[in-house]
Amino acid sequence: MTQSDPTLMSAAELSQEIMARRLSPVDLIEACLTRIQAREPKLQSFVEVYAEEARLAAQGAERSIRSGHAIGPLHGIPIALKDLIEIEGRITTGGCEAWRGRKSPCTATLARRLMAQGMIVLGKTHTVEFAMGGWGTNTVRGTPWNPWDPLRKRTPGGSSSGSGVAVSAGLAPWAVGTDTGGSVRLPASWCGITGLKTTIGRVSTYGVLPLSPTLDTPGPMARSVEDAALLYIAMQGADPLDPRTQRLPYADPLPALKRGVRGLRLARMPEAERQYASADVLAAYDASVSELERLGAQIVTIDLPFSFADVAAFNLRIMAAESYTILHDLVDDASAPLDPDVRPRIAGGRSITAQAYIEALQVREAMKLKFAAAFEGMDALLTPTTMTTAVPLEEVDQSKAPAHYTRFGNFLDLCAVALPNGFAKDGLPTSLQIVCRAYDEATALRVGWAYQNATEWHLRRPPD
Asked: Each residue of 123-161: pLDDT tens digit?
């Protein structure tokens, strides 16, 4: 048995310890459950913890590994799943009080895939209702507490709020979130962890409660780029239940992960986009760009044919139209106990005509081509992930969205990594976003790994 606290270890380290039989999955699960019991009353990151089931699974994993029947390197490692991801017979609410007793009719492909590799589900994590919001708040079911400020409740980021808090606070080594406009990357930024926004089709969405099928993408949330890469590998793959996954070959990011950035061409964000970020966020961003240049990357200037705000408006139009189509029965029911901040966002889709919706889809395809032309010869685009550090809840303006730097990635069907890149004067984490072209997750992870290998921001932990 290792002498280190396993809740402080990365998933990669846990795998090494378990496979070498220096760490028992039983002890690991017990350590996580003990930490959850101690921290969860305040943090509220989980909506349900599967304590007894996790213990039983850990006992089975330990016996299998001891007998030489390990399924693979992730056998016995715990994981948390966002409360959008179905597990047959379990409650999945999508953050909605009206669905408090809703039992899943199936198991999501990604959950089935993770469990087939021996991973142990600790439980379901909080989400913004229907995943429609970037601040991470849920008025009815509860807002998780961002662990970086133990005294003042701040935005955890959303919609994958509980997943971000659980990983940041060491309740789980990693978790799964979903990203429709920034919902993996925003909590990764404000909770000081690493998140990967995948490209449509890389990870099956079968069995994941939909918000906007055109834009929804599941993704890993972890403490490091290496862990995010390992979880991404475990999640991805063709699924006959999701046709968009069928045309994509399997892509392993590990062979190129540690090759460094020498020779890569990385673009700064356009000068006009700097006005939206705080001084502390910009200082951390500029330092990150300089660090990547020091590591051998060529830093170049890029001119985009549109602003991030222009793209965000069309992204929101698609989200509202599709989410209202899916959820109109609940949204139009005045007696349904919906979050008062979420209901009007989805209800906005009621007034979007078929013409306006189709025009947004057409603009999306045209903008993809324009972006591809402007991005020609580049390997990645660097931006901050969020405009500010985590905001005190009482200062949140729910009429606005914090996703200025993230929505364009969904609209243009790109992939992106968000990772810690410093701390502001208020002691809260800042974040760098590395955006790459569609299906080039390997390059985004490669750039992120090089940065993390040269810095230590991702090793910082919030106070207990």
From this structure: 999 999 999 999 999 999 999 999 999 999 999 999 999
Average pLDDT, the chain: 97
Position 26 pLDDT exceeds 60: yes
Would you please indicate which residues are annotated as catalytic (active-site) residues?
82, 159, 183
Range 367-372, long-range pairs (CB < 8 A, 24+ positions): 367/305, 367/306, 367/311, 367/314, 367/411, 367/412, 368/412, 368/413, 370/305, 370/306, 371/304, 371/305, 371/412, 372/437
Q: For residue 27, what are its two tokens? A: 């002890």
Q: What is the CATH number of domain 8-309+360-459?
A: 3.90.1300.10
Could you identify the residue written with the tokens 């659980």?
Answer: 166
| Straight-line distance from the first to the last Cα atom of the chain, in angstroms, rounded to the nearest whole number | 24
Amino acid at position 432, single letter: L
From CA 194, how far away is CA 361, in angstroms rounded?
30
pTM above 0.85, yes or no: yes
Q: CA 282 to CA 130: how far, in whole Å? A: 32
Q: Taking the CB of residue 458, how many other CB atoms lie within 10 A of it?
A: 24
The closest alpha carbon to 50, from 116, 155, 125, 146, belongs to: 125
